[in-house]
């Protein structure tokens, strides 16, 4: 009698299970609960704004080798994620985004279509010639095309940003123009023009990020004019701009009012060998322009910060130790408490790394608004750039650093009405040089090769800004260097940047904001793969401080002991007669001094080894918690739940 109801119950449960799954598949398609810290699986407001603003239909063709993906499990899982995200875009676009999913099987017309679309194939093996495809082509109004050649897993955190940027670009009839002027070799990389001539040049990733969204025009350092069509001007390390170029910058800011400026009291990345040895570190200071914009930078002084120093590897010749990691107080990692969370450009950035950054402050009486974006900690002080030396000496800077308790502004936004830095108008043209190098007479006639009708009309001089200016000034240009914020790798012929800091996001956010577009800002800020271990960093700094103090004490004792030992040994070497005069006490003192030297050296080694001991202990505790306590906690909860269920079942039996 009980078997029939039991069989019906099983059938009913199976039917209910199928019904719920079918209903969920159709009615809850695309629904998910996102428990990630940055909500990486939830479309951001910037993406929703971009989709809502679409005026023309966009077609996305996802090429994914589904059949071949069985041989590559990691790409199969990532392919499913990309497919779901692309379909979510289509569902949220109000019909403006069309999605096509294509499986380019080997030696098929679909594979030909993938190659024609610019999708990069990856060989499955060396013999069959089969290629694995995993990329996206987007097409918009007219002939606009965008392509992601291959979805690398290293950029998984940037998936939403890459897709939204593609759609935003496809929806634009024309990209905004950005003008760049300065001495930072953004187009050629660290080696500059010489590296490019050797075929080793590589544009900085900052410039490549800008080119994804903007048309970028790089100007020479003697440019006398800046295109009126430019929406924003970037001044990147102005170490050698001519007076004419500085005047062009001044007039552009007064006319258009939008600029991102990177000055620097010590551009370490541009350091060159000096004639007397060491390095000549150039300065990128434009005090007259900054003063006209209501801001001042301490000339020739950088901000050293005991708390925010980035860990660097150094060597200690005195103690014979190599490969020690200590914080460099001149290279700073600016995190949560040092970034302005009220400004849209920096509101959600994770960490910004800078090198020998300067200090900014508002100029009294300018009438402009000065709003800091990046700040130091209270454990900071201004130091002369000469302290940086020819080679990094973080220990020397730490010893000389005397914190003032003041927080220094490292970057700031300036708004309001600005005045010109050239009250007398444009600077005069330099007199042309003759073949002998002598300047021609100012009254010399213009070259007959240049016809008067070919000359451009002279623009009227502007003494005050036409609109409220909006200028972001950063007292460092080294942060533009790839080494400060990203690991750049070559993947299938394309450069892939894996950021460990938000420097690139900061630059592109600033340009987006100054150009009037905020939709991509929050998306970029979500995609940082590096999260600093604040507790570990604090332990490292404290350990470094203790190490330096104790090491100096021991080193002083060691030097004194060696000095006294050498004095006694010198007496012993002066001859047999002199040696005979050495007393037994002095001989014993020599042995004692030698023993003392060994003891001090042993203590010195122990202090060095103790530098990382606290960090190793913390790591051991974290391992114990994750490997032991967490599973034990789960078992305890499961056991309590089982006891509770057993107790409830016993109560039901007693009631029945």
List keywords for this structure.
3 domains; single chain; 656 residues; five-stranded mixed beta sheet; Rossmann fold; alpha+beta; Glutaredoxin; 16 helices; seven-stranded mixed beta sheet; globular; 38% helix
So what's the overall shape? globular
Distance between the termini: 20 Å
Strand element count: 23
Low-confidence stretches are 273-278, 442-448, 576-580
- Radius of gyration, rounded? 33 Å
Helix content: 25-40%
Number of helices: 16
Account of the 3D structure:
- By secondary structure, this protein is α+β, with helices and mostly antiparallel strands.
- It has three domains: 128 residues, 3-Layer(aba) Sandwich (Glutaredoxin), CATH 3.40.30.10; 225 residues, 3-Layer(aba) Sandwich (Rossmann fold); 124 residues, no CATH class.
- Helix content is 38%, strand content 20%.
- The protein has 16 helices and 23 strands.
- It has a seven-stranded mixed β-sheet with strand order 7-6-8-9-21-20-18, sandwiched between helices. Strands 1, 2, 3, 4 and 5 form a five-stranded mixed β-sheet that branches. Strands 14-15-16 form a three-stranded antiparallel β-sheet.
- A hairpin with a 5-residue loop joins β4 and β5.
- α2 runs parallel beside α5, α7 runs parallel beside α11 and α13 packs antiparallel against α15.
- The radius of gyration is 33 Å and the shape is globular.
- About 3% of the residues have low confidence.
């Amino acid at each position: 009698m009980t078997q029939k109801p039991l069989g019906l119950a099983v059938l009913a449960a199976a039917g209910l299970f199928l019904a719920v799954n079918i209903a969920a598949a159709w009615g809850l398609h695309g629904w998910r609960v996102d428990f990630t810290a940055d909500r990486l699986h939830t479309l951001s407001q910037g993406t929703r704004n971009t989709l809502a603003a679409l005026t023309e239909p966009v077609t996305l063709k996802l090429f994914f080798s589904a059949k071949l993906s069985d041989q590559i499990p990691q790409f199969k899982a990532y392919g499913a994620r990309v497919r779901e995200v692309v379909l979510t875009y289509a569902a949220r676009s109000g019909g403006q985004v069309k999605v096509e999913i294509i499986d380019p099987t080997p030696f098929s017309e679909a594979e030909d279509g993938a190659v024609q679309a610019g999708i990069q194939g990856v060989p499955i093996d060396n013999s069959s010639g089969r290629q694995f495809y995993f990329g996206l082509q987007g097409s918009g109004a007219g002939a606009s095309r965008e392509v992601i050649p291959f979805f690398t897993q290293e950029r998984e955190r940037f998936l939403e940003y890459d897709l939204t940027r593609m759609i935003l670009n496809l929806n634009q009839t024309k990209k905004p123009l950005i003008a760049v002027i300065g001495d930072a070799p953004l187009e050629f990389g660290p080696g500059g023009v010489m590296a490019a001539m050797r075929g080793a040049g590589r544009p900085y990733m900052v410039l490549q990020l800008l080119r994804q969204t903007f048309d970028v025009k790089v100007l020479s350092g003697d440019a006398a004019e800046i295109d009126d069509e430019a929406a924003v001007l970037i001044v990147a390390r102005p170490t050698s701009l001519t007076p004419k170029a500085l005047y062009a910058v001044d007039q552009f800011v007064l006319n258009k009012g939008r600029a991102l400026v990177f000055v620097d009291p010590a551009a370490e990345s541009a350091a060159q060998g000096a004639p007397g040895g060491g390095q000549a570190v150039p300065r990128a200071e434009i005090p007259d322009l900054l003063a006209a914009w209501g801001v001042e930078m301490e000339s020739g002084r950088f901000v050293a910060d005991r708390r925010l120093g980035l860990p660097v590897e150094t060597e200690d010749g005195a103690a014979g130790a190599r490969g020690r990691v200590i914080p460099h107080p001149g290279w700073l990692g600016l995190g949560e408490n040092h970034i302005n969370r009220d400004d849209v450009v920096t509101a959600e950035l994770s960490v910004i790394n800078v090198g020998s950054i300067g200090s900014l402050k508002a100029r009294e009486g300018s009438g402009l608004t000065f709003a800091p974006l990046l700040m130091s900690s209270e454990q900071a002080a201004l130091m002369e750039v000469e302290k940086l030396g020819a080679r990094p000496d973080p220990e020397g800077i730490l010893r000389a650093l005397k914190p003032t308790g003041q927080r220094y502004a490292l970057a700031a936004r300036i708004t309001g009405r600005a005045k010109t830095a050239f009250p007398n108008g444009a600077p005069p043209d330099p007199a042309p040089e003759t073949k002998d190098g002598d300047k021609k007479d100012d009254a010399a006639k213009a070259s007959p090769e240049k016809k008067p009708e070919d000359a451009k009309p002279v623009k009227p001089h502007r003494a005050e800004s036409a609109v409220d200016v909006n200028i972001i000034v950063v007292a460092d240009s080294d942060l533009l260097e790839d080494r400060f914020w990203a690991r750049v790798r070559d993947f299938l012929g394309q450069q892939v940047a894996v950021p460990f800091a938000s420097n690139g996001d900061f630059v592109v956010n600033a340009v987006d904001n100054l150009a009037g577009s905020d939709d991509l800002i929050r998306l970029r800020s979500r995609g940082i793969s590096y999260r600093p271990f604040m507790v570990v960093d604090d332990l490292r700094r404290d350990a470094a401080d203790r190490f330096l103090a104790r090491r100096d004490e021991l080193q002083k004792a060691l030097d004194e002991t060696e000095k006294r030992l050498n004095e006694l040994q010198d007496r012993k070497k002066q001859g047999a007669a002199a040696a005979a005069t050495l007393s037994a006490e002095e001989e014993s003192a020599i042995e004692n001094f030698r023993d003392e030297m060994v003891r001090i050296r042993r203590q010195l080694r122990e202090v060095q080894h103790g530098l990382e001991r606290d960090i190793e202990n913390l790591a051991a505790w974290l391992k114990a918690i994750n490997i032991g306590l967490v599973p034990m906690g789960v078992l305890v909860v499961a056991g309590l739940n089982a006891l509770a269920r057993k107790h409830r079942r016993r109560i039901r039996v007693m009631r029945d």
